[in-house]
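REQUEST ID: PR-0412
SUBMITTED BY: lab tech R.K.
PRIORITY: routine
TASK: structure prediction, single protein chain
INPUT:
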Amino acid sequence: MTDLVDYQLNDGVATIIINNGKANALSHEVFEALNAALDRAEQDKAVVILTGQPGIFSGGYDLKEMQKGAKEASALVKVGSTLTRRLAAFPLPVIGACSGHAIAKGAFILLSVDYRIGVEGDFKLGLNEVMIGMTMHHAGIEIARHRLTPSHFYRSVINAEIFSPEDAVTAGFLDKVVAPEQLMAHAKAVAGQFQQLNMRAHAQTKLKTKADYLALLDRCIEDDAQALGLAG
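STATUS: complete
OUTPUT:
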């Protein structure tokens, strides 16, 4: 696809790899490339594996963009929230293969896909917004509430607690943890299981199950944008 996002299609499985520097930072360009990759996966009718580089899934939004000013930061958050909303409603199964650290927006992506596999090791997963002085946005609050256990929701969103991969399973960021060298093999095995699904039934059941949540996300994204005049 681009230098920032790679797309590989094999046997009906689309592997989308984020590759943007040491932190795998999420910029406007990365989101544009991710959306293009998801467009292609829809065209290919492929089960998706979304992953990062060894040791880092994503450290979150591109700080250079976030530090330009409030409007620039809010604009990037709107693009990111729209991407996670798309993942939550994606008509084909999406597997998050978390290759290491997943912080802030990286963790929100994990909260938005269908199945999440992490790797063993000294890795950190969680929402650090309050820790670094950011008031959590409406969409982020509801994405976290939708997938985390009630006690871990409070610990994550309000206390900015960060978790090990094993504790991230208990919290709800991950579904399973494997050895790093097993990550992609396990993700491909899960993708093979998902390929046995009736994709029409999968897509329609996903939308029916998440109808209220998706409507809430739409309102939250609009509310977040309105706060700094970015609606529309």
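NOTES: Strands lie at 5-10, 13-18, 47-51, 55-58, 94-97, 100-103, 115-119, 125-126, 162-163, 176-178.
REVIEWED BY: pending
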